[in-house]
Amino acid sequence: MRGLNEVQSSTEQKIHLMNNKTLPNGDEPEGDWESPTNQIEFIEQSRHDHKYSKGVSKLFDFALSYMADAEKGNQNGKPAVWSTGLMEAPLIYACDIVPMAVYDLGRLGSAEGAAQLSEDLFDMPKETCSMVSALLGEWYQRRNNSVKKVVALSTVCEPLNMAYEMIREFGFDIHRVDQVIKPIQGGEERLEQMIQYLTRELADVAVFLTGKPLDEAKMAVEIKRMNRLMAKFREIIKLRVANPLYIKSLPMLFLLMGSGHYFGKPEAYEVLLDELIDELKNAEYVPSPLGKIVPLTWVGARGLEFGVYKAVDDLGGALLSWFTPNPYDRIWREDIPPLEAMARFILEYFVTGSPVNQIKYIEKMIEDSGSKGMFFYTYVGCPYGGLHVELFRDYFHKKGIPSSGLEGSWQVGAPSGQLITRVRAFIEMLS
């Protein structure tokens, strides 16, 4: 296998061919991959590239309308709450409330301006995690909006915990969930104690949101919905192995994020999954622009730099599995009380827990998708992501699985040239 330095010349020649709209077989590539400068343009270009898919177009409609529809609904009597948008949907929907995902905040907005605003208002050092800086600025710009409740999970990251405290002065009502992490030691007795504690913490969320105890029957129904939807999502993942570029990386990113909150439209999201499954089962094969497919696994944050995903697709890569904060690969228990089921699910999965607990899931994803390599993606200044990546990288390096680390920023413009060059070189190395 060639090293990254050895393939730079070949990669640059390929880039030149694509920028000049000519591929080795004489065909022209789809679209102009260098032209988009913001997230909306990347989405519209991807929509055009997927003009054969009504499902993908509908997915982008959901993504673009998600925040505005939730805010409008909140004003019209359908309550909404800020949350992580990762795995708390069964609890929040059981309270008849729409989750507004913190991590989608700014994804389609002006995060660069928000980060600068945060630095100016709060004297945030430039070394601060770009995600936290941008979110503070985004919340400040939304300080007069109607959605004021926030459910904050304490183990997401410590800088974000501090940011939650800072936005209290803007009138946001913060409810902390003291979220524990699965112990490596201590045995079943210790684990059961933590489950009981976290169950009580989750019960308090319902009281915070509604002023009354949780309707457990409703949450049991929502858990069944989550399991049903994730089974459909896994079917899409499986079908993509045979036709990787029918649904390319960017729409898969949004489909993945939607698995944690359904874009505020649970019934419509399920219909969308069914439509995409039907399309994949009957679709013609979509070839790579360069005549090859390199199956890959994405590990880490769900980046905002959409050009990275486009570069993967255009150079023959296919992100066929995703180890991100969205745990689509696991099942909620339906045979125990719903809050206990949620506590057990969190303790088994949570990505900010010990990396030791997570490696087995990444290995299974690599095996199921036939991945030849892995991208590890973290945000600049992330205090825990970098450490996790190094632990993962060391483990999989010893297993002989190639990887490339990508460090991006929480910004909505085109990705840096350096980031794209790393993507291009890594895929070329695996070809």
UniProtKB/TrEMBL annotation:
It comes from Georgfuchsia toluolica. Pfam families: HGD-D. Belongs to the FldB/FldC dehydratase alpha/beta subunit family. This is Uncharacterized protein.
